[in-house]
Prior knowledge:
By secondary structure, the protein is α+β, with helices and mostly antiparallel strands. It contains three helices and three strands; from the N terminus they run ααβββα. Strands 1-2-3 form a three-stranded antiparallel beta sheet, with no helix packed on it. Helix 1 (3-22) packs antiparallel against helix 2 (31-45). The longest helix has 20 residues, at 3-22. The mean pLDDT is 90.
Amino acid sequence: MSKEESKQQIQKLVEKYQRVKEVGKINSYNEAQTRNEFIEPFFECLGWDMRNATYDNEVTTEESISGGRIDLAFRIAGISKFYLEAKKMNADIESAASAKQAINY
C-alpha cells in the first residue's frame, strides 16, 4: 500500500468512527469489534503484517506476558517492539484497573 493509499484508508477509518459516534453506537462496540474494525485496519495502513502473510510472527495475538495476556505484540526481526492492549470504545482507560494492567505489561 502506498503512502497516499494509507492516508486515504486512515481517513476512511476516521470517518467511520465519526459516523459511529454521531449515531450513538460507541457504547455498543465491544473490544473485539473495536479491534476488528478500527485497531487492526489502522496498523495494516501503517504497514504492519497483521495476518503474518509475509513475515512470520510479525504481529501475534493473545500472547502471555507478565502473568497476563496481551492482545497484540508487534515485532521487527523477531524482537518485540511494543504491545497493544485493545479496549472497547467506551472503556475507562484512566481507571485503576487499566493502569495496573498497563504497568504489569
